[in-house]
Amino acid sequence: MLKKKKILIASYNLDFGGIETSLINLIKNINLKKYNVILVLEEIKGAFLKDVPSNIKIKEYKVSNNKNVLVRKFVNLLKRVKWMLFNYKRYYASICYATYSGPCGFVARTSSRNKILFIHSNYYQAYDKDENKIRAFFDNRKIEKYNHIVFVSNESKKDLCKIYPNIKKKSVTINNLIDYERILKLSEKKINYKKTIKKIFLFVGRLDESSKRLTLLLEVAKKCMEENVKALFWIVGSGPDEKMYKDIVKNNNLDNVIFYGTKKNPYPYMKTCDYLILTSRYEGFPVVYNEAIILEKPIITTIDVSDDYISIPNRFGYVVNEKNIYDKVKELSKTKEKIKETVDYNTLNKKRINLIEQIMEKK
Predict the structure, then answer these.
(1) Residues 6+ apart with CB under 8 A from 238
(2) How many other CB atoms sit within 10 Å of the CB of residue 227?
(3) Domain boundaries defined on the chain
(4) Among 52, 179, 214, 349, which residue's Cβ finds the most Cβ atoms within 10 Å?
(5) What is the pLDDT of residues 197-234, one digit of tens each?
(6) Pick from 196, 191, 189, 106: nearest CA to 142
(7) What is the C-alpha separation between 5 and 358, in angstroms, rounded?
(8) How far apart (Å, rounded) are the C-alpha atoms in residues 41 and 62?
(9) In what order do the strands lie in the sheet with 275-278?
(10) Residue 265, helix vs strand vs coil
């Protein structure tokens, strides 16, 4: 029997989130007869921990956040030295799955000769196209030291390659793997809600104004109230700006907006709604796009992104801007739209995992 190749994947934790969901789907699809996967987390915590296959070992690399700068630096130096002593280039390939995490990057870059970076967001848009800030971020993460860079959307790849042209040849677009059978099964769970003739527009995600821009959605909800548009807005998720959003709803008496909080299983809400709606300022390629497509829900989005197979306009929904989002909601509230195409996620997953394994085999 051939000896399994050791693969290291580093990420932050396994709490709720699109990156965490896609990470679970990735490790479930890797050929574990061929690879011995070690998962390294900054924090061993999160609702998805129980979804990690039992034959995958989890390690923790937790940095010190001591308020005393000297103590913090000394403790973290010892941790780095210890990690290097026992792990330096001991793996066949290593993946930094959490782009934003400095410790994850250190772990991935030092553990093998074949270093792979996943980029889940469009940092060019996130930093308002400020090249100095983008360079400061990615220089700090030593982007050019990676052998391969995997983007989840064509747009984020194109934008970052403008700033780092040297990475273009080692960059590829591969979107997240999706457990479509699980999504279909979980969507069957019943939820308590008051049936309505109003069309339901659902937002699922982190309640964070800097990226998700839900004030725009609440402006649309307010205008719908004022003009008696038969639209209801469901919000599933939590985040730093949750109180602000709830205050806006309360102060404007928006009884067409309902907050459901964080749900490990948001799929019954997706199955029940009529449309998925995103008002984001920037995105990589949201996991909820794929989830909506699986559940055959048209997407209304302010972000025009495409991946290695899917683009939203005409096929799976509508791309709108700040000025016409209300008009599109009003239009769709009067009809029942369907997506124009279905996706064979079984074939797509196989293609994607094959590409990832090919990258893990390259030096």
Answers:
(1) 206, 207, 261, 262
(2) 10
(3) 5-177+346-361, 181-332
(4) 214
(5) 999 999 999 999 999 999 999 999 999 999 999 999 99
(6) 106
(7) 13
(8) 8
(9) 257-261, 231-236, 199-204, 275-278, 299-301, 317-319
(10) coil
- At 310, the amino acid letter reads I
Three-state DSSP class for residue 131: helix
Predicted TM-score of the model (pTM): 0.89
3-state SS of the chain: helix, strand, coil percent to 5? 40, 20, 40
Sign of the alpha-carbon torsion through 310, 283, 14, 90: positive
Q: Answer whether 256's CB lies under 8 Å from 219's CB.
A: no
**CATH domain 5-177+346-361 topology:** Rossmann fold (3.40.50)
Distance between CA 205 and CA 196 in Å, rounded? 23
Q: Name the residue among 80, 10, 12, 79 with its Cα closest to residue 39.
A: 10
Helices 131-140 and 154-163 pack at an angle, to 10 degrees, of 90
Nearest in space to 237 (alpha carbons), one of 265, 273, 274, 271: 265
Say what angle helices 325-332 and 214-226 make with each other, to 10 degrees: 50
CATH class of 181-332: alpha beta
| Nearest in space to 137 (alpha carbons), one of 97, 100, 96, 98 | 100
How far is C-alpha 167 from the geometric centre of its chain's CA atoms? 22
Tally DSSP H helices, then E strands, for the chain: 14, 13
Going by C-alpha positions, the residue among 299, 303, 203, 300 that lies closest to residue 257 is: 203
pLDDT, one tens digit per residue, over 312-327 is 887 899 999 989 999 9
> Any residues with CB less than 8 A from the CB of 317 and at least 6 apart, and which?
275, 276, 292, 298, 299, 300, 301, 339
5-177+346-361 shares its CATH topology with 181-332: yes
Q: What is the pLDDT of residue 219?
A: 97
